[in-house]
Amino acid sequence: MFTNSKLAKSVKLACAFGAASAALLTANMAVAQEDAAAAEQDVEKISVTGSRIRKVDFVSNAPVATVGEEQFSLTATVNTESLLNTLPQVVPGLDRTSNNPGNGTATVDLRGLGTNRTLVLINGTRAVPTTASGTVDINSIPTALIKDVEVLTGGASAVYGSDAVAGVVNFILKDDFEGVQLQSGYEVTEQGDAEIYNADFTIGGNFADGKGNVVFNVSFTDRKELFQGDRDFSTFAQFDDGVGGLFNGGSSGVPSNAIFSAGFADFAPDSQAIIFNQDGSVRPFVGAGDNNDFYNFAPVNYIQLPQERHQISALGSYELSDNAEVYGRAMFTDSRVPQQLAATPIFQTTTFSLDNNPFLTTEAQQLLSGTIGDDVDTDGDGIADTATALVRRRLLEVGPRRSEETFQSYQMQVGVRGSFGDSAWTYDAYYQTGKATNSSAQLGNVNRDRFDQALLLASEDGNVIVDADGNPSCADTSANGSTVACAPMNIFGEGNISEDAAAYLRTAVASQAVFDQKLFGANIAGDSGEWFELPGGPLGIAFGYEHRKEDFEFLPSQDLAAGTIAGFNGAPPVEGGYTSSEWYAEAYLPILFGEEWAESLDVELAYRSADYSTAGTAESYKISASWAPVDEVRFRAGFNTAVRAPNISELFSPAGEGFPGAADPCSASGAPANPSAELSALCQATGVPADAVFGASLNPASGQVRNLVGGNPELGVEEADTLTVGVVLTPTDDFSVSLDYFDIEIEDVISTVGTNNTLDLCYNSAAGGVGSTFCNNVTRRADGTIDFVTDSFQNAATRTLKGYDLIASYSIDAGPGALSLDYLGTYTAESDFFAFPGADAIECAGNFGLDCGEPLPEYKHRLTVKYGMDDFTVQMLWRYVGEVEDDDAGTDYAVETISAHSYFDLMGTYYVSDNYKVTAGVDNLFDKQPPIMGDNAQQANTYPATYDVFGRTYYVRLTATF
Question: How far apart are CA 956 and CA 920, in angstroms?
Fold first, then answer.
């Protein structure tokens, strides 16, 4: 056991290291609060994220950043990801701006290593995932009950299991609240839109003479939509003009219908494409300049997804005896988040009636017959009976594409914890179950087969048959799965599709996805004080067992499953699951304490063995140490191995389609500035007509390329090595600073090669060429445009990440109040991805783009300056996002560098009385506008999760506490 002198020194050391824990963002140096004068009394043992061992003087041997309850209050946070995304260790995942790509969820992504490599915990246990990829929708965690969020970066699999490769985000809830609290908030931009309303009610208290406590919360959120058309920078889709400029572009899938063909060179020499007038005549397609024919799809796309969210949560505990306490948690969330895109563009090679077609002028029939007409001319009048071409038609008449997403989730946990008699040994056993259900109904999809059917009209001797009013009929009048019979369709000219034809095209699409989790865990922790001690004190020990079962099922309607729709992505059914049985052990070894040149010297060890029903046995371990030669200086280092087992999507998904951003190296927009003859020859050898090479006709529609990605049941686990080395300085009780180096290398990374990367490897690397795996995975249509790129999950890639975290906190008395500064900065020196052994690195540190995705600046920081006095607190937040470069240096984008961006937020809280307070603030105080780019943008001509797209925004929240 500790002697009194050692205990006093322990408290002194803990308090010195813990001075920063009350600050905004710290290395989480949580400590006991007893004064050294109370050394004769028991000192409370505590733990932090990263270990299950509770100790008096716990100072984390790994960098942990804490976002405290005060920050949630000052920023009036409604959607948790908006606050987490201000941390420099976090690369924004999906959030309220994620319309396309997006799925209605909100996610957190540490270090940019992927949301599936960030483990989300609630009070130290796993949250229920929402998707087949194991990603947690953090919308399901009640914001009003969050006490702290602890972010541990670096591998933590030995302590928490699979998925903790980049680290863990641990949401710690208020489980001891007493009283009644009502809150209501409102947020609105300076332009009077993008409003967010929220209200919550929390009640809690003790009962049975303090043996029990119950906390109950209900909350409501109503987030209004904002469209891209509501902001000047996103009203028009910006495209690169190929010579370093931007123009008001859009999609070649136009409401009037467009056909691109080299055969139109004489008629339309500039773009080799035609567009239809409303009367069925044709003219050359204008593909350059601001007055072009591209369809501007941007205005009707959301830039803020609307949301209606209801939550009910309850936490409780009851002390059965001095040595046993039962506890439980139940949370339910209903979140409705629609998405909206422009009306469906159909890009489909189809055959349509030509000769005597009443929807086309005679001149148009003659032009089409001589270029794309089929070989049969039954009546010999010089006009082919039919024509076949890739048509590009925006189906405005069908209506906008809208996905109504409803997420309902619940998670329940019940457990018992306590101690073994009067010993230092404690136990905790719990069972939790949860389910997340995503119900989706899609509007605006059309059936591809019925589209083809409605274009072939009834004919005789090759000529279309019309009635007395000049109206044709379908050659095949069957309903073909529709609720109405086939109606002939006029796609030649904007607004010409009749309501009958539109009704025939529409198809009802719905799906339901269910993720089910069941988990049992038990652990025992204590120390060796009753038997032996090391020179620094007793040995700390923890060990336990966890059994987890996860199942996922995706049930799509027929058209969605078969992929016979145009509109949203086709998605086949998915069903799969796995179980894991895991045991783990931890040890804390206080080697020295209170010695000369060793105020403390300790070592932490951890080991976990996991048996997965799918991937077999995986092992991980941790070894870390710290040395404090004096109270004010502490060195720490840690080495972790981490694992990630393949998730259900990676294992069991059939090939499903997606439309990621990509550039075709054979097209005008994707080719290098000075393409070589060798590249031209390769493009032709892989299916591009000679007269289309490097032409605009090959430009991917809306900068997206269709891909087909499927699972692989033979996948094994990912394995990562994580090294952290750092120093913590606490020269005074008011100042602390820590600097940590991190180095992560992940082998056998479960990944697809990537659509854009596949194209680049095929056409621009030594690994490509005719007959290569990469070129074989690119399927082109007869006109040379990409039909789809095939990909699948493999244990083939490698990822490396290196950098530094700097955390500092300083506080001082200033006049009648206290001034504090809190800084958190990250420098990312390396973030590389190797698609396969021997592949060239995709370097993402300091870059963004089609391969790297979200911007990952080399340097980011978050700095707050806070002043508090009596009933008033005011804070200024400075978020800095460093400069980034486009990851595709060979393409002539107009915007290849995004300069550094600084955002300043001003906020404050005033206590009107003991029971009432008002919080108000201004985000983006100086109305910093986002960077605008073209083909290399993610959505809304920018990266809206990284760069503010709302402008100056005001908020206010009223809180009443009794």
Answer: 4
Cα-only R_g, the chain = 31
pLDDT for 437 equals 97
Which CA distances in Å does 261 have to 652, 692, 700? 40, 8, 15
What pLDDT does 38 receive? 34
Domain coordinates of the chain in residue numbers?
256-294+345-394+446-506, 647-714+753-792
- Cα-based distances in Å from 299 to 172, 236, 413: 40, 7, 45
Measure the CA–CA gap between 444 and 566, rounded to whole angstroms: 9
User: What tokens appear for 900 in the block?
Assistant: 């550094």
* Pick from 912, 907, 698: nearest CA to 72: 907
Instruction: List Cβ neighbours of 586 (8 Å cut-off, separation of 6 or more).
Output: 51, 52, 53, 158, 159, 540, 541, 542, 543, 604, 605, 606
How many C-beta atoms lie closer than 10 Å to residue 273's C-beta? 23
- Interatomic CA distance for residues 112 and 92, integer angstroms: 8
Query: In this structure, which amino acid lies at residue 702?
Result: S
Enclosing H/E stretch for 958: strand 953-961
Q: What is residue 482's three-state secondary structure?
A: coil
Nearest to 738 by CA among 25, 11, 12, 9: 25
Largest CA distance in the chain: 110
CA distance 722 to 333: 35
| Residue 627 neighbours by CB distance under 10 Å | 18
Is residue 252 helix, strand or coil? Answer: coil
State the residue for tokens 């996905």.
403
Interstrand relation of 884-886 and 897-898 (parallel, antiparallel or unpaired): antiparallel
Task: Say what the pLDDT of residue 838 is.
Answer: 82
Tokens of residue 701, six digits: 């529609």
The rounded distance, in Å, linking the Cα atoms of 809 and 427 is 36
| Cβ 416 vs Cβ 325: under 8 Å | yes
Please tell me the predicted confidence (pLDDT) of residue 650. Answer: 92
The mean pLDDT values, 10 residues at a time, for the chain of 962 residues are 35 34 33 32 58 64 85 92 94 94 92 94 94 93 93 87 92 92 96 97 93 95 97 94 88 95 87 94 91 94 97 96 95 96 94 96 96 94 95 95 95 96 91 96 95 96 93 96 95 96 95 97 93 93 96 94 90 93 95 92 95 95 95 94 94 85 89 90 94 87 84 92 94 93 95 88 90 92 91 90 95 93 96 88 94 95 95 96 90 90 97 94 97 94 97 97 94
Contact 922, 928 (CB under 8 A): no
Q: What is the pLDDT of residue 45?
A: 58
Phi, psi dihedral angles at 622 (to 5 degrees): -140, 140
Chain centroid to Cα 501, Å, comes to 38
Separation CA 924–CA 915 (nearest Å): 30
Paired tokens of 309: 């969210």
Claim: this prediction has a pTM higher than 0.85: yes
Contact assessment for residue 323 and residue 422, using Cβ atoms and an 8 Å cutoff: no
| Pair 126, 548: CB distance under 8 Å | yes
User: Is the CA virtual torsion 830, 831, 836, 841 positive or negative?
Assistant: negative
The two structure tokens encoding residue 106: 């909100």
Whose CA is closest to 817, among 870, 779, 740, 744? 870
Query: Do residues 731 and 647 touch, judged by C-beta distance below 8 A?
Result: no
CA distance 776 to 756: 14
- Closest C-alpha among 476, 847, 789 to residue 655: 789
Beta strand ranges found along 90-211 (DSSP E): 118-122, 125-126, 146-153, 167-173, 179-189, 196-207
**Which candidate, 397, 199, 197, places its Cα nearest to that of 311?**
199
Cite the DSSP H helix spans in 459-570: 499-505, 558-562
The pair of structure tokens assigned to 226 is: 């904002």
Residue 654: CB atoms within 10 A of its CB come to 13
Q: What CA–CA distance (Å, rounded) separates 214 from 178?
A: 8
Say if residues 291 and 419 touch (Cβ distance below 8 Å): no
